[in-house]
Amino acid sequence: MQITATIITLNEAGNIRAACESVAWADEVLVVDSESIDATREIAAECGARVITKPWPGFSAQKQFAVDSASHDWILSLDADERVSSELQTSIANLQNTTEATLAAGYRVARRAFYLGRWIRGGGWYPDYQLRLFDRRRGHWGDRVIHESVTMDQDAQVEILRGDLLHYSMRDADHHRQMIEERYAPLGARQMLNDGKRTSAWRMAVAGPAAFLRSFLLKGGFRDGRAGLTIANFAWLNASLKHSILYDLQNQHQDGATRE
User: What CATH number is given for 3-167 in this structure?
Assistant: First the structure.
């Protein structure tokens, strides 16, 4: 079992070294960079990674390009703001010491987020299982525009590995808000439209409060104190903004269909 660790990047000079170092044990580290204007590529190369530059085609497409460009069939995919924990590394090493016949086709790992100075336990943020270690002969990245995931063959066996994938996604609350306004809400609305989902004035009104209650109460965000409350408030913002954008998109879509 030889593994290529793949990382996609865009202006990740502040993150890429730690990401590469956390997978330095892999048989290959492959960084696919979307024309960064900082030192991302140089730092990755210093860490021993093979670096490919490719214009940005979208999250899923870029991750699949990395999979297709890897030297080995087993892929460990992570983002530049993620790190493989020592426990997860040990779990993967144990797999490498077993025979191919005993391996599943893919493995899910729990992702733990570090936010506002603490590791988050609730709010739906943990364990947040992600399928990140897989045999590319049995799986591929789907075509979603956001919250992309690996799709495995129908008969492929998928198991869970011990150990966390550590996620350092948000620097602070301002960065969180920026990510919602510029990425999560617009792309989430586009994905909902692509999935045939529609919204209404009533749904726009209740989406935010419902998201807050789900995050803070139903999913235990209150256990994380101030950080949990902040996450719940941003869940409200994300849901409200996403439905608002979807409302505009669906009206544009209907107007276009009417003119045709």
Answer: 3.90.550.10
